[in-house]
């Protein structure tokens, strides 16, 4: 995206809004200038917008997925993603080259003082490597970094490991449904410095999220960090769903059958507090994306957080 906002550093006081905004520094102070850039940060909704969003979601409840289809989708969520990657291979998602803007911790060479220190990272829901390979690239394939990548779609792991840049001496890609016990090729308990979850928890049925978090947190070292970004309640994606997409609550299915859940920030925070994870920073990224050619405004809401495992 052109004119992507420049990201800054994250304030570590969890009780305050970050003084150095981790999500951007372009703020819309004059509505007349809205189409001068492609994106604006921390755009607050009016009361009218909030009420309209609630009305849309309430109306979706009258057009829910039929029960038989819902049962089928919920019984095998991994199958839907596996079929997705079998069809799309590595042609669908773009590389996440914005990673260090929102998660500067992942710059291994900058964050660690000892040149001999080993840093182990697990990327969850890795797909075909749209985070894996950019992360290795920005770290210049540092010998200090070992990157684990997992996905519950076998076809995603197949495609990832088939890439020329996949290096088993620095990477470990494996199949794992994080709501189940970790396989033998997963990292050892309390071995990881960072776990990266980008649009991962939203792909899990809400009833299974606690089990997934328990499994993941068990792999973090004491003092290790969980980095997450996921869909916020009333994001444009949620409001655009039409008939036969709502399963229940705030859980939906896309046209390809994959699941997506939309979180409240307090909801995620309370879930992580159950596992004694210490909030470093948490923020709702309310971003206004603009199509300047068509003069269209699109309101996005994501939740980003950084949580520490107690020593």
Automatic annotation (TrEMBL):
The keyword Transport does not apply. Pfam families: Methyltransf_12 (PF08242). One of its GO terms (cellular component) is nucleus. It is found in: Cytoplasm; Nucleus. The keyword Magnesium does not apply. Keywords: Cytoplasm, Methyltransferase, Nucleus, Transferase, tRNA processing. Residues 122-226 form the Methyltransferase type domain. It catalyses: cytidine(32) in tRNA(Ser) + S-adenosyl-L-methionine = N(3)-methylcytidine(32) in tRNA(Ser) + S-adenosyl-L-homocysteine + H(+). CDD domains: AdoMet_MTases. Residues 1-22 are annotated as: Disordered. InterPro entries: Methyltransf_12, METTL2/6/8-like, SAM-dependent_MTases_sf. GO terms for biological process: tRNA methylation. One of its GO terms (molecular function) is tRNA (cytidine-3-)-methyltransferase activity. It is an enzyme of class 2 (transferase). Its EC number is 2.1.1.-. PANTHER family: METHYLTRANSFERASE-RELATED, TRNA N(3)-METHYLCYTIDINE METHYLTRANSFERASE METTL2. Belongs to the methyltransferase superfamily. METL family. Monomer. Interacts with SARS1/SerRS; interaction is mediated via tRNA(Ser) and is required for N(3)-methylcytidine methylation. S-adenosyl-L-methionine-dependent methyltransferase that mediates N(3)-methylcytidine modification of residue 32 of the tRNA anticodon loop of tRNA(Ser), including tRNA(Ser)(UGA) and tRNA(Ser)(GCU). Interaction with SARS1/SerRS is required for N(3)-methylcytidine methylation. This is tRNA N(3)-methylcytidine methyltransferase. It comes from Caenorhabditis tropicalis. The lineage of its organism: Eukaryota, Metazoa, Ecdysozoa, Nematoda, Chromadorea.
């Amino acid at each position: 995206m052109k004119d992507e906002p420049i990201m800054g550093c994250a304030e570590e006081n969890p009780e305050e809004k970050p003084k150095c905004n981790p999500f951007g520094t372009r703020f819309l102070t004059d509505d007349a200038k809205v189409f001068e850039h492609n994106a604006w940060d921390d755009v607050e909704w009016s009361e009218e917008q909030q009420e309209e969003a609630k009305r849309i979601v309430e109306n979706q409840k009258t057009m829910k997925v039929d029960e038989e289809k819902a049962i089928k989708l919920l019984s095998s969520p991994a199958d839907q993603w596996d079929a997705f990657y079998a069809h799309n291979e590595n042609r669908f998602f773009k590389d996440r080259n914005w990673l260090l803007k929102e998660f500067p911790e992942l710059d291994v060479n900058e964050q660690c003082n000892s040149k001999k220190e080993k840093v182990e990272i697990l990327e969850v829901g890795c797909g075909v490597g749209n985070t894996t390979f950019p992360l290795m690239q920005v770290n210049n394939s540092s010998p200090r970094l070992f990157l684990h990548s997992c996905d519950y779609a076998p076809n995603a792991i197949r495609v990832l490991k088939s890439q020329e840049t996949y290096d088993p001496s620095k990477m470990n890609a494996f199949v794992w449904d994080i709501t189940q016990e970790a396989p033998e090729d997963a990292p050892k308990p309390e071995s990881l410095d960072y776990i990266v979850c980008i649009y991962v928890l939203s792909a899990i049925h809400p009833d299974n999220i606690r089990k997934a978090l328990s499994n993941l947190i068990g792999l973090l070292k004491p003092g290790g960090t969980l980095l997450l970004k996921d869909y916020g309640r009333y994001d444009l994606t949620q409001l655009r769903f039409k008939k036969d997409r709502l399963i229940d609550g705030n859980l939906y299915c896309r046209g390809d059958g994959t699941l997506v859940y939309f979180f409240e920030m307090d909801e995620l925070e309370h879930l992580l507090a159950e596992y004694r994870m210490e909030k470093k920073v948490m923020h709702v990224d309310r971003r206004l994306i603009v199509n300047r050619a068509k003069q269209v405004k699109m309101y996005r809401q994501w939740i980003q957080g950084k949580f520490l495992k107690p020593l």
